[in-house]
Write a structure and sequence with these properties.
Low-confidence stretches: 298-318
CATH architecture of the largest domain: 3-Layer(aba) Sandwich
Oligomer: single chain
Mean pLDDT: 91
CATH topology of the largest domain: Rossmann fold
Shape: elongated
Number of domains: 2
Structural class: alpha/beta
Helix content: 40-55%
Number of strands: 8
Strand content: 5-15%
CATH class of the largest domain: Alpha Beta
CATH superfamily of the largest domain: 5'-nuclease
Number of helices: 15
Distance between the termini: 18 Å
Length: 320
Amino acid sequence: MEIKKPNIVLIDGHALMYRSYYAVQFRPMHEGVPLNIVHGFWSTFLQSLRHFDPERIIVTFDTPEPTFRHVADKEYKAQRAETPDDFYPQVPYLEGLLEAFNIPVIKAPGFEADDILGTLAVEAEQKKLNTYILSGDLDLLQLITDKIYLAKFDGKTPYIFDREETIKKLGVPPEQVIDYKAICGDSSDNYKGVPGVGPKGALNLLTTHQTLEDIYAGIDDLPEKLKTKFNDHKDLAFHCQHLAQIKTDVPLEHKIEKHLEKELNWKNGLQYLTDINFNRLYNQTKKMNNYIDQGFNFDQKINTEKIPKNESEDSQMALF
């Protein structure tokens, strides 16, 4: 798919940190701390610059505070494994790198990164900007419009989800993703939907009834067993709909215009890469900076220096 201009890239920072932790098998060290998260994250950032040539890249993160979803449902994401011990010591180094490069980082206590992504994407759309959300979280497919896309890297090549690709993946268009998840649930987020109704049943229902509300409006037309399931679990169905819906109106401190004003600080960022002994990524980043300064077209292939196999982000990472 051709990349649309002008565009911005929004990075699901928490998801990328976890992907980097598990995808980068070698462990670059600094002062006794492994920095595989930082390596993977920055490698993907460079890939994003190369492939999307964006006006800006903005990073969003979750916060430690419970979100409104955790408040609504104590079982929300409760099944997820504990974070490895060597994960959090790396976070200050990643934050330091992003700060050094003057990259906007946005958090909002009480909300997930997804909600910030949704809010920023809608604001960008109102500004006539195309938005590529870099994440492997398919919940974000509900946000897709003719100006908002979900993107994930598979090695060197970004895979872009638009409306057509969303239908291919889930069987429903973006506007039905919330109700699809409300009906059949989401095991990764630990909510079950309507018991006894799986993905196939949800697809059939959303073909004849456009929304969850429509299903209940015409519930007497459903087969008796299905009617009983939906009647018995009406509160649960709408509860799951609430959990599935990504907010697009998070009260952020600044509107997107403020973040679009920020320019990358290549000098400080390159110094930070030197300080943490990321020499090879320093060279790649320096080369990227030179291409941007010289006004090269990123549609042309950037001939980055050869990288030993054990340090190649392409061989190590198929992030998202």
